[in-house]
Amino acid sequence: MPENSTKQPVSSAAQSFSGLDSLAFANGKPKLAATFKQEFTDFRVDEDLGFDLSENGEHAYLCIEKVDRSTVDVAKKLSEATGVHGSEIGYSGMKDRRAETRQWFSIKLPAGREAELRACETDSLRIVEIHRNSRKLKIGSHRSNHFRVLLRDCEGSRDEFEQRLAHIDVSGVPNYFGSQRFGRDLSNLKQLQSWMGAALDAGSGSVIDSSAASIPKQRFKRSMLFSAARSYLFNQLLSHRLERGNWNGYLEGDVLNLDGTNRSFALGAEVEWDSLLQQRLEEFDIHITGPLPGEIDPKDKYVSYGEAADIEEAVCKQFTTLLAGLRHFGLKTARRPLRFRPIELNWEWQQSEQTQGASDLLLDFSLGKGAYATSLLRELCVTRGPGQ
Question: What would the mean pLDDT of 36-41 be, rounded to a whole number?
Answer without folding.
Answer: 95
